[in-house]
Amino acid sequence: MLDIKSLTLEELREEMEKLGEKSFRAGQIFQWMHEKLAESFEEMTNLPLSLRQKLSDHFQYTGAKLVNMQESAIDGTRKYLFEFGDGSLVESVWMKYKHGNSVCISSQVGCRMGCTFCASTLDGLERSLLPSEMLEQVYAITRHTGERVSNVVVMGTGEPLDNFDNLLRFLSLLTDEKGLHISQRNVTVSTCGLVPKMRELAERQLQITLALSLHASNDEKRRKLMPIANSYSISELMEACAYYFERTGRRITFEYSLVGGVNDSKEDAQELSGLIRELNCHVNLIPVNPIKERSYVQSEKNAIQAFKNKLEKNGINVTIRREMGRDIDGACGQLRRRQKALQQEVAK
Question: Is 205 left (phi over 0), alpha (psi -120 to 50) or beta?
């Protein structure tokens, strides 16, 4: 069955014509799905009962079942675990800031990128998410909190550019003026560095922020942390970043997870400064969130501050990411892994 929540308004009009319905019905349905955030066709009360039945017969209506929710006692951050119709589990995070509410969503069920400090990739990739399933994470959290989401970050489980076509459709629907109408400038998409897709995204000339997970200042160290570095060198990455800025006018954000004794020395900071100095960019320093499956530890506070100071002295715009939800399963993949282990125990 066709996934109705992933259709554009124009595609929805064409489907209504196929069903022998007036084209204006498409606008009503689109509004119910993407503005009123209806959870079923039954809620679309200004549609005739006969049409609602037709819709049920012809279309799949994606929903996200809430399996678990953890709320931080420190800052109110909420970690959500959702289940889709096929039993797939994904995580999303709701963060409350002074400037508005941000939601971090997953783009895939699992991940195949293999970054060594990340829990999301430990079980590999199960499948990519549909546009509707990415949207539904935002919609379900909006319904649950009763508050508007102003910023969306595609930085949860998965590599967004490994799900490129579905990502683009998701972005189009998320920012549609007849839906939630979230500004493209309030959307960030993360990548571990799929260079051809970075260039293809640049060609679309969207006004989103591209965040590159860099995590090292030379190829040797990056290969140890991120297998993708075996495919694309840092020089290729920097060229792709420059091209993205050239095509979009949007500065690049570099995500840099600080791992104690691995990539957090003053020499690392100096090397990083030299690498990115010519780019219009911002550096997000992230104290790594330790996971039990790996031996990595968070950098000492004085090392983090020294790293930041070194970058700033070299004229680099830098912030230390505020740690949100540290008292809950904050790292991507932790809550999902715990739930899967529980399900396996029950199955025994």
Answer: left
